[in-house]
Design brief:
heterodimer, A: alpha+beta, 2 helices, globular, B: 107 residues, alpha/beta, five-stranded mixed beta sheet, 3 helices
């Protein structure tokens, strides 16, 4: 069982938003910042991890959403949170930078 | 991404083609704000738009806020596919006036 076209579009959009945030806020629009995208699954989820080498940030960065969509800022995070079942930073002492992990339930037949 | 402008009734029409994302949304922003300075309503035609991300949507939101401030209309026409999905995910489909085609605009 595969994701539908609509689900696939949404996943692509969420990863695009996460990548854009890394480029803008992590790498301050520097064009040679590296982003590594790791894709895996467990028994329940498709898992997308975006690795960067920017200054470490906390989950506070991905919690705030605008109270109104007409307020500036936060639309990218809103999209990520609407599409994915979980969005969080995974920090390890061994790894500089950030690992943003997004999980989405697998299509039902794959559970 | 490309865009072109036309006029329909009392509106300027901004036709977006291709993909609007972080790499080019500033160009769309510049043109949209220029159009809104002409004191006419603007229709943003999505009929040939394949993709738009939050930076593109933020541009349209900025345009909408400016339009409201100047008592002008900003309308989205022919949203479909992935761009319509972005409007739904952000609930901006409940904020913007949306029409099926440019020709459906009311005078």
């Amino acid at each position: 069982m595969a994701y539908s076209e609509k689900e696939t579009n949404a996943i692509v959009l969420a990863i695009d938003e996460a990548s854009s945030n890394i480029m803008r806020y992590g790498y301050k629009n520097c064009i040679d910042g590296e982003i590594m995208i790791e894709i895996s699954t467990d028994h329940q989820h498709a898992i997308f991890r975006l690795h960067d080498h920017a200054q470490q940030v906390t989950d506070d960065c991905i919690k705030a959403t605008p109270s109104s969509p007409l307020e500036p800022g936060g639309l990218g995070i809103l999209i990520m949170q609407e599409v994915m079942d979980s969005v969080r930073f995974v920090h390890t002492d061994n790894c500089p930078g950030n690992i943003l992990e997004m999980r989405i339930n697998l299509p039902k037949e794959n559970h | 991404m490309s865009f072109k402008c036309s006029e329909h009734l009392n509106y300027n029409v901004l036709h977006l083609t291709g993909e609007v994302d972080l790499s080019n949304s500033s160009e769309v922003r510049k043109r949209l704000l220029e159009l809104l300075e002409e004191s006419k309503g603007v229709i943003v035609d999505f009929s040939e738009l394949d993709y738009i991300d939050s930076s593109g949507m933020a541009t349209l939101v900025e345009g909408l806020n400016l339009a409201k401030k100047n008592s002008l209309a900003l309308v989205i026409a022919a949203a479909n596919g992935a761009p319509l999905q972005v409007l739904e995910l952000t609930r901006l489909n409940q904020v913007f006036t949306m029409i099926d085609s440019v020709e459906d605009i009311e005078e």
